[in-house]
Request: fold
Amino acid sequence: MAAEVGGDSGAPKKGKKSGKAHKPKKRPRIDMTPMVDLGFLLLTFFVLTTTMSTPNTMPVVVPPKITEKDDVEPPKISERKVITLLVSRGKIYYYTGIEKPDLQVTDFSPKTGIRKVLLDRRAEVEANYGKDEMIVIIKMMADAQYRDFVDILDEMAVINQKKYALVDITPEEEELVSEYQKVVEKSS
Amino acid sequence: MAKFKAKKHNIAIDMTPMVDLAFLLITFFMLTVKFRAPESLEVQVPSSIADTPLPAQDIMVISVAPDASGKWGRVFFGVDSKHTRLSILEKIQEKYGYVFDEREKKLFSVLPEIGVPFEQLKAYLNLSETERKAFDKTASIPIDSTNNQLGQWILFARYSNPKIRIAVRSDEKTPYPVIARIIETLKDQKVHRFNLITTLEAQPKS
Reply:
């Protein structure tokens, strides 16, 4: 067709006219550019989602077991710097110090929950003993779930609390919690 | 000059092969995204603010999910490389005296996660794929204090690959005593540093 047009170039007007007349015969051409755009957009999306779906990890360090033959005493800490958390399912019982524990309860809610308790206690310890002196003792209760465990470790990361320890719960503390629950049931 | 202008107007590249290629790649990525993780144990991991990605190599994953009763858990074990898996299987042969043939070894080396007691391993490898899937729905590696085979798995894996790191991938509803048991097992193996696999959640402000 181009050859035809070229051949008519001597009379341009005529050539144009003949071009118009031939138009319906021309093969329809689809502009593929938007399709390519879309294609590569989707491609980018899938490439990114594949790499982003790698799971994340949270590091945990646990204290080594102390057996009798090790001949080492567990480190001693001042009760004035300590807060003990007894983590139950979605609930945290906590007390400060070691002797005559006054048990209180809180939860994981972001503003009023355990974070506030920890920050208040930290301010208190800091005022008396200086920075980074607070020690958090975490004791998981039997009815807790894995989610609670991750949540409490997360709280440590959020408030940037470096000194914390994961310790087994004692029967006395379990007793304390069940007594507390009884009192709450009576009063309600 | 007139010729030049005419040429400039007519530049049109045939995009068809490009489109073909793009859609081929899309199809490839769509499929790989869907089938990337064929894990035997279905686990809903909890979210946390931790943002360190899980290393792809030299890693063993201990998967935990609550069992049917919801009171105790089921435990699966997986390592990343074929080589380590084969080496673990050899250690099992040595220690327990089971003999695995080539076919069983080959199958073991491609299974990403295993959750059967050592005694049933040979029988498990001889099941068909659908039977294995059905078996995986109730099976678990024993972690009781009297018969703690998870400890053995960890020991074998660390012998096979000394650089290996440990990650725990647990369902958020797993009862804590199971987790405590696993941490205890790790402590017994002198592992005091490990990772918990989580999904990312936005860090709260202030």
About this structure: DSSP finds eight helices and six strands in chain B.
